[in-house]
């Protein structure tokens, strides 16, 4: 019997794109895999929930798509946990869940490709798709876990240093071949529901960013593989819902929740000393990048107001804050709103 797949799309302020994402799933036959879609609206401003409800009726989605109109913005991980908890509680839960960003669309039978790959690899907990921009240009969708050295090298943004630390840098090449990696993009990733249930799903301490990295860190730590499967293809308009883009040419100030997630990730995976080392490495690298960028007539690598924001939101909490964030609201236990 073909493995069963539940697709989860968490929307916030991108109703039109979310509708297109749902249609991209429903337009495929998935090579016989039973597929259901769950579209959760994270209390979007502007009446997105009503727009999605009208689309559900007008497009005759029927019981193929379930809407989840939430009354508060849970963020990405906690929003997914709302649906994951309900799926895990079923007498016969689906085998896999596929997380698809609302600003992404399937470009081929990606769900079948990923499910078949996981069927053949029982030791793997997750499999990520290859991702391209709307122009068709592939982008990095497979990564190494961050470290103090990678944070320093990426902050300096100096060719000889980047080449010296090329085996430590977080992004893997856009043409990375299929196989095991540290983690894959949460914009288009399939996961075993049984593993998610055992690990407690996404850590609710994260509002947005790094939640999938931390989850896959726990998957790897528990002995599972993470696979990158570029044959499964997805198109992604990066940052449409959050306006935070990894390759943005214009320096912008990053939101406070981004820094909070960065701090939480390093604290939870490396402890206080490791998180401080990574933070100080990034500060040092950004400090070196400033004169280098001036000499090379380039934009600085760091976001606007980086030094004050990073010190206030990362360094001081690491030095003087609590040792560990809360760890409640797991998939198997239930989660507060």
Give the overall shape, derived from the CA principal axes.
globular
Helix content: 40-55%
Fourth-tier CATH superfamily name of the largest domain: Spore Coat Polysaccharide Biosynthesis Protein SpsA, Chain A
CATH topology of the largest domain: Spore Coat Polysaccharide Biosynthesis Protein SpsA, Chain A
| SSE string, helices as H and strands as E | EHEHEHEEHEEEHHEEEHHEHH
Q: Major sheet: size, sense and barrel closure?
A: 10 strands, mixed
- List unreliable stretches of 5+ residues: 239-248, 323-337
Which second-level CATH architecture of the largest domain applies?
Alpha-Beta Complex
**By helix and strand content, what is the structural category?**
alpha/beta
Number of strands: 12
N- to C-terminal separation? 36 Å
Radius of gyration: 20 Å
Query: How many structural domains does the protein architecture include?
Result: 2
CATH top level of the largest domain is Alpha Beta
How many helices? The count is 10
Strand content: 15-25%
Q: Can you give the mean pLDDT?
A: 91
InterPro entries: Nucleotide-diphossugar_trans (IPR029044)
GO molecular function, one term: glycosyltransferase activity
Family: Belongs to the glycosyltransferase 2 family.
Protein name: Glycosyltransferase family 2 protein
Provide the fold topology.
Layout: E1 5-11, H1 15-26, E2 35-41, H2 48-58, E3 65-69, H3 76-88, E4 96-100, E5 104-106, H4 110-120, E6 124-132, E7 138-139, E8 142-143, H5 148-156, H6 159-164, E9 179-181, E10 183-184, E11 188-192, H7 193-199, H8 211-221, E12 225-236, H9 256-296, H10 306-320
Parallel strand pairs: 1-2, 1-4, 2-3, 6-12
Antiparallel strand pairs: 4-11, 5-12, 6-7, 6-11, 8-10, 9-12
